[in-house]
Each structure stands twice: as C-alpha cells, then as structure tokens.
Amino acid sequence: MAGQINNVGLIEVPMGITLREIIYEIGGGIKGGRQFKAVQTGGPSGGCLTAKHLDTAIDYDSLVAAGSMMGSGGMVVMDETSCMPAIAKFYLEFTCEESCGKCSPCRIGNKRLCEMLEKITDGRGTMEDLQELRNLAAVIKDTALCGLGQTSPNPVLSTLDNFWDEYVEHVVDKKCRAGVCKKLMRYEIDREKCIGCGKCAKGCPAEAITRTDYTAPGHKLASMVIDSEKCLKCGACIGGCKFGAISVK
Q: What is the mean pLDDT of the chain?
C-alpha cells in the first residue's frame, strides 16, 4: 500500500476486505486531511477506482467487475492533487518500457496511446483524440498477445470512465485542476501585492517578466507582469518573491 496515505507499507489482509477498510482503518486515511480521489489496484496495469468503489470487496471477481484487477496486489492511493490523465500516462510509459515488442498492439499501440496522452496533458488535445484514445485502448485490450498488453489499457479506460470531466477540462478549457500538467500552468502576479522590487524579473531565465505602468496604492514602484508566452513555468519567480504576489493558476 503506497501513495498519499498516512500508513504506507506491506500489509496482509483477508480476501473480501473492502477498499474503505484498508484505506481508512489500516492505512489511516489520506495525508494532510485531503480528500480521497482514486485508488489504483493491481500494479501498473490496474484500473483507477473512485470513492463510489470504496465498499468494493478485495477479491478477483469484484475488482475486475469494478474495472481494475487483483494483479500484483499493489495499491496506490491518490488525493485531489493527482491529475488522472497524467496518472494514466505515467503508468502507460512503464508498460511501453516493459513491452517485449512481439505483438504490434502492445509494441506500437501503447506508444500511440502514450503520444495521445502527452498531447492531452500538454493542452494540444481535441475531443476527437479522446474518442480515438478510447477506441485504440479497446483494440489493444482485445488483440494483444499476452497479459501485459491485454491489461495495459486499464489505467486509460478506467480514468476515461471515472474522470471524464478531467479529460474534457484538459482538452476544452486547457486546464489541469490538480496543477500537475506543467504546460497548462499559468503564472500570474497580483499587482496589488507586488511592490515592484523587480527581484522576480532578475531571477527569470526567460526574461518573461517586465514592469507595468500600474503602481498599487501605498507602493513606490510599478508592479511587474509575466508574459505567459515566454514563461518557462520553472517557478524561479515564486521562489524569489517574499510578498506572495505570484501564484500558479
């Protein structure tokens, strides 16, 4: 049991125990008092289950029916700081590395899935990509030769089913609600808090920060502004601001 949970480690539990009992009684709940978001069971090829699945019994048939599997017996717990499209891409990257390459559905198909997920998490995806993602995942699941290829689309299909709204946000709104997808981040300076010291501009490697013509009441210097087109999202500006004037949207 691992992830964003208070008690991590190796546990032995009886067959039939529920996810809720493991996460909240044995695991001690979510770290930092955050909200439970998802749990992936069965290792990298397992599905991501939601709060509605917390009372699912841990046994082979129940997990498969819920869209996951027993697999290696692994369990990774996630809170609201996790981005589900990015999680799907993370696990698929592992599968691509582990593929023996014998069959094209796994060798080529999973790479194409990974490329589509990268496109989506970069904010370049379309609604057509989401449909193609689902169709290709289903084909790989049905046609791959071995268990690795047949289960590799599980993280994709389960997150599409359970977190569809997050995929749509990445595609339509160009937004990552968890703030994980770097290319969808936007750094902004609150001109009312900014004292115009210019320290952020001096520390910006992309020279993306310049001075505006606005001076906040009580301040002597005009505030700064970030050019989102030039911004590298490196975070150097936040680290250099002592006034909490810079935030990530």
A: 94
Contact between residue 113 and residue 136 where contact means Cβ atoms under 8 Å apart: yes
Q: Indicate if the pLDDT at residue 2 is higher than 90.
A: yes
Q: How far apart are CA 179 and CA 166, in angstroms?
A: 12
Instruction: Spell out the residues 6+ positions from residue 230 whose beta carbon is closer than 8 angstroms to its own.
Output: 206, 207, 208
Alpha-carbon distance of 208 to 38, in angstroms, equals 37
The token duo for 113 is: 């899935």
244 close to 203: Cβ distance less than 8 angstroms: no
Please work out, in degrees rounded to the nearest 5, the angle formed at the alpha carbon of residue 75 by the alpha carbons of 33 and 63: 115
CA 89/CA 37 separation, integer angstroms? 17
**For residues 201-212, b (16+ Cβ closer than 10 Å) or e, as one string?**
beebeeebbeee
pLDDT in tens, 214-229: 999 999 999 999 998 8
Q: Is 204 helix (H, G, I), strand (E, B) or coil?
A: coil
Entry pTM = 0.82
**Structure confidence by residue, pLDDT tens digits, 163-192:** 999 999 999 999 999 989 988 988 999 999
Pick the CATH number of 185-248 from 3.30.200.20, 3.20.20.110, 3.30.70.3270, 3.40.50.300: 3.30.70.3270
- Look at residues 93, 49, 45, 53 and name the one whose alpha carbon lies nearest to residue 72: 45
At 17, give phi and psi (nearest 5°): -65, 150
User: Residue 149: which H helix or E strand, with range?
Assistant: helix 147-151
Provide the sign of the torsion angle of the four alpha carbons 77, 80, 85, 90, taken in this order.
Answer: negative
